[in-house]
Recover the amino acids of this structure.
């Protein structure tokens, strides 16, 4: 009997599989099809202080090995999330959930985190400083070590929950940003958010996405994500949550060998609503195939020091 | 929603670019005409949403136009041999309870197929169904005889006048009396119908989708009653809620 448990910032998960923010809503669409309590946890839809419609459509484009999205942080705002989504969520999900937070100013990140900090059932705050699809916020905090550190410090001051900073791959040196977050008190980092991309329609000669650019996700980004998790996890001593193109139980194990303590699954949920259920079902036999007794023992096994 | 691996019973062209595919499927999850299915095709990452034309207990019929890589890939699935991963029973579909005794159904081009399943259901309820099918030209016409065989009154319009009434669907619509309307087709046609219609009605929208089941917020539109996901809260919206 293999052991799939991992511990993320002091909270033990039955398995490392966490649907990524923006691909799982608040769980309802998936709970109709399988019991989402089999998940390690899940990261709910990125929440801002005020309701946001997001970007105009089209927001989605096909890509080799994945997809582009430019949803633009559509969400009902933190007060609605607290009043409506979280009570509904607590009825169907009985494990700590990861609260994904976004903002356009340090004050906004702080206020959303402060309000969510009071809520039962939230295990971690995943602070998104890396959304590529909004202007004047999101990624602008995640592309500069000082700004990322400033958000981290400000958020840490208003919450007792573990703070995981979600990082952008659209930077020159992700390691320096991860280190800045660690130095500022982050309890963990998650990576990678989507890679900035675009597609052009040959018939109209115009960008496919109304937002012109969007975030690339799916299996095509997996090697980039593995490389960044490998680099960051060797440079920091806080846990790293790995994500980017994870589709199979083998991918989860590869991401953990690279240094991930837990693994988020994003785009795969959209193509196959049962993706996470299948990964969790497959994990024990894939662990046996590769002679892994306890999943928490392989974290970072690929590092040079090992 | 229901996920199935469906074998392809039939897949053949009706016109130069419009094909009909029949899939073997348990259709229990399809609850209303106007719903859609989402197909996983080899070599493409995202599923492709296609409206349901008709269904019975053991099969679902799709009529699709080849417009891009997804529909091109669909046309390469061999009837009798291929199988395809399908999510069935997506979207809200048309609300038949509002039709009144004499509903008008308007399909434009590749918006015609969902009107077939709708006409069938309404006729089974004893409604007096009139259908307007709009095409650009004679060579593009499909399903006219099928609608007639159901027992609906059928008008065909062509923009170039090569068949039926010359002009647009609204050129016929303006002279008809009806209790309610249902439509699917391109946006310019929708806008003309909105100007011409004298009753309530329902429009079926399309949008590029990520998931097709309400998770990704890729296809959200604004309505008078708040944001709606075309895939989950639509694709059918009521006339009164649409922001034009």
């Amino acid at each position: 009997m293999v052991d799939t448990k991992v511990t993320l910032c002091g909270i033990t998960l039955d398995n490392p599989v966490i649907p990524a923010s923006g691909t799982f809503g608040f769980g309802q669409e998936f709970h109709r099809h399988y019991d989402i309590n089999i998940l390690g946890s899940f990261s709910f839809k990125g929440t801002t202080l005020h309701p946001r419609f997001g970007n105009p459509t089209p927001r989605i484009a096909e890509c080799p090995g994945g997809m582009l999205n430019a949803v633009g942080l559509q969400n009902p705002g933190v007060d609605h999330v607290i009043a409506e989504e979280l009570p509904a969520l607590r009825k169907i999900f009985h494990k700590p959930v990861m609260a994904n937070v976004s903002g356009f100013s340090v004050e906004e990140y702080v206020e959303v985190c402060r309000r969510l900090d009071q809520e039962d059932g939230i295990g971690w705050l995943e602070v998104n400083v890396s959304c590529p699809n909004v202007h004047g916020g999101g990624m602008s905090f995640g592309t500069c070590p000082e700004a990322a550190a400033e958000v981290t410090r400000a958020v840490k001051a208003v919450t007792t929950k573990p703070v995981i900073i979600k990082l952008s791959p659209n930077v020159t040196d992700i390691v320096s940003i991860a280190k800045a977050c660690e130095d500022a008190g982050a309890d963990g980092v998650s990576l990678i958010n989507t890679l900035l991309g675009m597609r052009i329609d040959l018939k109209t000669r115009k960008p496919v996405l109304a937002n012109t650019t969007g975030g690339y996700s799916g299996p095509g980004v997996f090697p980039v994500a593995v490389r960044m998790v490998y680099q960051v996890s060797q440079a920091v001593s806080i846990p790293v949550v790995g994500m980017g193109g994870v589709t199979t139980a083998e991918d989860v194990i590869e991401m953990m060998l690279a240094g991930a303590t837990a693994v988020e699954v994003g785009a795969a949920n959209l193509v196959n609503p049962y993706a996470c259920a299948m990964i969790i079902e497959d994990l024990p036999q894939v662990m046996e195939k590769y002679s892994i007794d306890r999943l928490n023992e392989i974290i970072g096994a690929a590092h040079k020091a090992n | 929603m229901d996920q199935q691996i469906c074998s392809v019973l039939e897949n053949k062209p009706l016109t130069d670019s419009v094909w009909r595919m029949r899939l073997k499927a348990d259709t229990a999850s399809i609850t209303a005409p106007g719903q859609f299915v989402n197909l996983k095709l080899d070599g493409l990452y995202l599923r492709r949403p296609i409206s349901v034309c008709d269904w019975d207990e053991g099969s679902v019929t799709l009529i699709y136009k080849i417009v891009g890589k997804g529909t091109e890939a669909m046309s390469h699935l061999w009837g009798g041999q291929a199988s395809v991963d399908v999510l069935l029973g997506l979207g809200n579909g048309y609300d038949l309870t509002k039709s009144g005794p004499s509903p008008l159904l308007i399909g434009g081009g590749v918006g015609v197929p969902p009107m077939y399943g709708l006409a069938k259901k309404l006729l089974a309820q004893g409604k007096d169904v009139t259908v307007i099918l709009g095409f650009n030209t004679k060579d593009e016409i499909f399903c006219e005889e099928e609608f007639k065989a159901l027992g609906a009154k059928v008008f065909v319009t062509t923009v170039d006048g090569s068949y039926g009434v010359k002009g647009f669907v609204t050129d016929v619509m303006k002279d008809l009396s009806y209790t309610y309307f249902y439509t699917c087709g391109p946006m310019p046609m929708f806008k003309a119908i909105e100007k011409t219609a004298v009753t309530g009605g329902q429009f079926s929208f399309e949008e590029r989708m990520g998931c097709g089941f309400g998770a990704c917020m890729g296809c959200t539109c604004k309505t008078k009653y708040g944001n709606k996901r075309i895939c989950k809260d639509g694709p059918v919206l009521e006339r009164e809620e649409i922001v034009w």
